[in-house]
Amino acid sequence: MVNKDTCIGCGACVNMCPVGAIQFDEDGKAKINPEICIKCKTCEGVCPVSAITIKED
Ligand code: SF4
Ligand code: SF4
């Protein structure tokens, strides 16, 4: 999930997601589509403010 309070809308995660699972929502914050996400955690690593947490289930 993306913490909308800390996301600064930099777009790094959107650009780096290998499957295109992240888009900006209407607030300009990143939003992950769980139907597409393969939980590779690339986005977690590239986010400059650590706004993303990928949960294993
Ligand atoms: S964990 Fe991987 S597949 Fe899922 S949103 Fe992040 S970069 Fe994309
Ligand atoms: S990399 Fe982090 S700060 Fe940048 S858009 Fe994604 S969640 Fe927001």
Write up this protein:
By secondary structure, the chain is of the alpha+beta class. The chain has one domain (1-57): 2-Layer Sandwich (Alpha-Beta Plaits), CATH 3.30.70.20. The chain is 18% helix and 11% strand. It has two helices and two strands; from the N terminus they run αββα. It has a two-stranded antiparallel ribbon. Strand 1 and strand 2 form a beta hairpin. The longest helix is centred in the N-terminal third of the chain and has 5 residues, at 12-16. The mean pLDDT is 97. The structure holds iron/sulfur cluster (SF4) (2 copies).
Q: Please describe the biggest sheet, giving its number of strands, its sense, and whether it closes into a barrel.
A: 2 strands, antiparallel
The helix count comes to: 2
The average pLDDT is 97
Rg over CA atoms: 10 Å
